[in-house]
């Protein structure tokens, strides 16, 4: 994610990041430090699996904590329920689109940290989301995807 783009996120998405941060910091990390201390007291650390695994896992947790802290600091929480212009597609909109074969799909535009294509959550900076931004019902939008260019018609827009 480039520094010039805001890191938009929904209130629920921010809550999930914060909950993971708190769980790692106040629960998982202290327990791991305890195990590492215990294992270190058992003598030879070079062949001590608990010690070696514990140190490796602690580095992973610390990296994740750093990443979460950075993402939360850069986050710009936007509540889609507060959107005033509900006739156009903006952050947080749930959109129904139809392709050239009239196959429809419904997706919600969320922050990049919340994206989950399997659940229909498309990151704000994904090609499809960028193409749909600002569109209204009836608008046609062309999206360049790895499979080629696809044209979608916006058939529905809702907000929470």
TrEMBL record:
Superkingdom of origin: Bacteria
Presence of keyword Cell inner membrane: no
SUPFAM superfamilies tied to this protein: FKBP-like, GreA transcript cleavage protein, N-terminal domain
Transmembrane segments: none
Gene3D superfamilies: Transcription elongation factor, GreA/GreB, C-terminal domain, Transcription elongation factor, GreA/GreB, N-terminal domain
Family: Belongs to the GreA/GreB family. GreB subfamily.
Alphabetical list of NCBIfam families matching this protein: greB (TIGR01461), PRK01885.1 (NF002506)
Function per UniProt: Necessary for efficient RNA polymerase transcription elongation past template-encoded arresting sites. The arresting sites in DNA have the property of trapping a certain fraction of elongating RNA polymerases that pass through, resulting in locked ternary complexes. Cleavage of the nascent transcript by cleavage factors such as GreA or GreB allows the resumption of elongation from the new 3'terminus. GreB releases sequences of up to 9 nucleotides in length.
Protein name: Transcription elongation factor GreB
Organism expressing this protein natively: Sphingomonas colocasiae
